[in-house]
Queue: 2 jobs
Job 1
Amino acid sequence: AQSVAQPEDQVNVAEGNPLTVKCTYSVSGNPYLFWYVQYPNRGLQFLLKYITGDNLVKGSYGFEAEFNKSQTSFHLKKPSALVSDSALYFCAVGVTGKLIFGQGTTLQVKP
Amino acid sequence: DTGVSQDPRHKITKRGQNVTFRCDPISEHNRLYWYRQTLGQGPEFLTYFQNEAQLEKSRLLSDRFSAERPKGSFSTLEIQRTEQGDSAMYLCASSPRYRGGGDEQFFGPGTRLTVL
């Protein structure tokens, strides 16, 4: 069965430090992988996706994600965190068009 | 604003009542999706349409749930005989023509349903 796991419920990081939000997946065939962010009282916003090609994918707001096929991971990264990055982050895998989401990771960036 | 819109944003109803939600996708998108999100969880897929055809329904979508997209534009999701377990955020998303699963979906703000 296709699935996505986000092993951390919450990640805390100081402003200016690098951040990583972890995601692992289980799919048959080539994966289509996505990261979305959800701010309070707002809809999900697309950050970036991996379809094929370079393992390092760049997205919105300075975020990037590294696809690792051998470890079946797709971790979200940012070199320097901002307080405004504090939000709920979801990893997802595309399966026949629909998205299967992980349970989400809350990112707290402290000044 | 040319994004996905949903109406209403909030709905409070009593157990046993019927409710209907509406979603207006981005105009040129021919795929429309419904998801349900409960507190502390990621969104769960319910159903999706390509134009007016409903192509897939999740097992989560019990017989009390029905979705339509009659003219391939807006969609409605109806829940009959609501139960307290139906309380959740109902999210709608749309995407352009299907190109093999790699299309990002654009989400609306959601409809929050509370069943008393």
Note: The mean pLDDT of chain A is 94.
Job 2
Amino acid sequence: GAGVSQTPSNKVTEKGKYVELRCDPISGHTALYWYRQSLGQGPEFLIYFQGTGAADDSGLPNDRFFAVRPEGSVSTLKIQRTERGDSAVYLCASSLGPSDSAEAFFGQGTRLTVV
Amino acid sequence: TQLLEQSPQFLSIQEGENLTVYCNSSSVFSSLQWYRQEPGEGPVLLVTVVTGGEVKKLKRLTFQFGDARKDSSLHITAAQPGDTGLYLCAGAHAGNNRKLIWGLGTSLAVNP
């Protein structure tokens, strides 16, 4: 596709359930980022991948959150034992390479609601 | 702790007016970016500033990075309804440019 694609666009789940959020980056982009944006807030950094490896996962809030990118393209953000406080828009972004000047392009986000 | 303070948080103006949005911090950033976000969409990069005192223009938008690289401003001249949206600033620290620190955003409404 032409841009970063995130699926699903909306996800409603019950407290305690497990969810997976998917991100398809722009083809050829080696860097991939996950952010979380709560209502009325700016995005909050979660994790950054360079290729298949997590180069910086310092933003993951706790061990219920985990992300993978096994083939260096598609990434999945996994949340175990969801809590109501996990409700937010989860944004994925990708950029061409590790250069600090490479522009990051964002997807539309997945709106997660935990009820 | 909010490392980047944006002001104002909300702004409603009439078409044709000028406005300035501020982004302030006590931290020094190696670069600072401005984004615009529409409802239901991800942020879209407008500009990156990296040099203290730098001024960049994008049509009616003028961006300035403070001399000490702790603050930035976005000035819009003759605002139009199409400028309506959420404007976000995001800073990066030296040695960790991939982990952006974001402000809360300024929600701008330009009324016809």
Note: Chain A is about 0% helix and 50% strand.
